[in-house]
Write a structure and sequence with these properties.
single chain, about 300 residues, alpha+beta, Arc Repressor Mutant, subunit A, Rossmann fold, 2 domains, five-stranded antiparallel sheet, about 30% strand, elongated
Amino acid sequence: MIRFADFEFDARAGELRRNGTTRRLEPQPARVLAVLVERAGNLVSRAELQQRVWSGETYVDFDRGLNYCIAQIREALGDSASEPRFIETLPRRGYRFIAPIVTDAAPDFVAPSVNHQTDTVVVNHQPQSAQTSQRIDISGLAAFSAIAVVVALIAGASMLMMRRDAAKAKPDTRVRLAVVPFDNETGVAEYDRLAQTLTDATVARLASDPVRLAVIGNAAVLRVPRSNRDLLAIGSSLNVGHVVLGQVQQIDGHLRITTHLIRTGDQSHLWAHRFEPSAAETEHLDRDVSQAVAEAIAKRLLGS
C-alpha cells in the first residue's frame, strides 16, 4: 500500500482509496501510476513507460494509449495538467510524480525505497527483534495486468460474436418508417425554419421509442423536392413500409400544418391531420404536431 496526500494506492489490486471510497483503475492506467509512484520525484520518460507498460505490444497506438492512461489517472486523483498536484507533464519528455510519498501510520513501517535495477519497491518493517524486508514486485503487476487485458479482450470478442449470432437468430421486428422533411408551401422564406423545426421534432419524438420503431430522417432520398418525390422509391431504397410527411401552408393569412402517414407499398393514407393554430398556440406547435404523429403511429402501426 502506497500513500500520498489523502490517497492510498494498492498497486497489486490497481485500486485507489480515499476517505473510505475505493476506485479500481483500468489495468494499464494502474500500471502507469505504479511506475510513476515507484519513481516519485524523478522524470519517467515516455520511452520508459512504453517499455515498462506496453512492452512488446507494438500494435498498440502508444501515444494515444499513454495519453488516455494519464487522463484516467488525473481524473481519478482530481488532478489538473495545468496546475498539477500529483502528475507533472514535461512536454515531449515524460512525466514526474510530484506529490510526496508519506509514511504509513503503522509504527513499524518505513517509507518504501526503490531498487531501480530490479524494478521493485522494497517495504522495510522494523520489529524490535530484527528487520525483515518485503518486496512488492511491480513487474508482477505488469504481468498480471497483461494477462487480465488478454482475458478481457477474449471475453469481449466472444460476447460480440454471441451478440451477432443472437442478432442473426432474432430478426428485427421493429416498424421501419421515414420522416420526409416538411414542405414550406407558403412562399415565405421565414417559414423554412418552422418546417425544419417540425421535421426535427417529429423525428426526435418517434426516435424516443427505439424498441418498437426504426426511424430514418436524414437520408438523401428524403430531401428530393415534392414535385419529384417518389414514395415507392423511398420505400424500396430505405426498406421502410411507411412515411410521415407534412406541409406548412398559409390560407387566407392563417397558418395551417397538414401531416400525413402513408403506406409506401400502395401509397394509401392511413392518417392525416390538419392544425390551424392561433398566434398563442404557435409557441408549442412542434410539440403538438410531433405528439399527434406519434399517437397516430402508435394506434395504427403499433397497436397501442
